[in-house]
Amino acid sequence: MKRIFADVIQFRGSHYEFGFKQGKLLKDSFLVKNREQQWKIRRPLFKIDTGETKQVYERLAPFIWEEFLGLQDALEWTMEKVLMEFGGYRVNIKPSGCSILVGENYMIRNYDYHPKTYDGRFVVFQPLDGGNATIGLTQKITGRSDGMNDKGLSMGYTFMNRRRPGNGFVCHMIGRLILELCASVEEAAQLLREIPHRGSFSYVLFDSSCEIPFIVETSPRRVEVRQGYTCTNHFKILTEENRRVLDDSNKRLQAIEQKESLSGLEAFRLLNDSDKGVFSKLYGSWAGTIHTSAYFPKNLEAWCALGGDKEPIIFNFDEWLKGTDFPNSKIVGDVDTDIPFVNMEKADWFK
User: Fold this and answer.
1) For position 203, which CATH number holds?
2) Can you give the pLDDT at residue 42?
């Protein structure tokens, strides 16, 4: 077993100031050093067009561009390098797992991916220059793998395939845009219809007023909206986009759907306990469960656990929005793998 951690980062201020603080925290970190090493052996399968990317962000979310400027100044990087690492536009995504269950006033999510990609950052951000306040786990620093905003809108996504990518935003930046720009599932679904998508993902959307969550199936070719309580790694409408082998996705979906009328804690245990058929240890296959998160829109509460068979750490987002900081500086857990986590140790990209 490996002991791992995620830093709890709390910030109130402008996007530029937030970007600058993050840059100072990242400078000379394992996270940055490991990512610099990976480009020595991995050829980028995408192109960075700084001018085009700036135009897209200035039209859609100009304050996030300010965050990139803060990162650039603190890290002393070119903007092209900032966008290559953190821009969230035109980036390839590896296969992954992930499972989501929504019930009465909760959305529970298993984040299944590879340790060498994990940020290890739980971020709470209240911007003063535009956009909603948010709480959740980051991906590629500026993106969000899952989270909730101060309106109670909760979001998580699941991977479908990486065939035929298009020019557009990747999943984690789309998650960030949903949380900062939208106040309801309807607004989020409309945003997903309007923006360009790099890859194929389902976005599960839940807020305090909707009875049945929205599941938005997206690809570079089209977007469809359905409703449901569970989601793993295959489409129900865009079936032509599905991978050929869906055995693991169907197995996890069946394990979730067999349970009915669960409380929030029972649903959390279903996804986080390693013996319930949903939690995954396939870390070497880019599909091991790293964290289980839960969001409760009505009372603005978030839970998080790293690794399996853990009691969640509870974050009262409502109180934080009123000025009470969390006492936690880290979330600590254990995972059954020897693969390095890039936020805390040197990672050998040749293995």
Assistant:
1) 3.60.60.10
2) 58
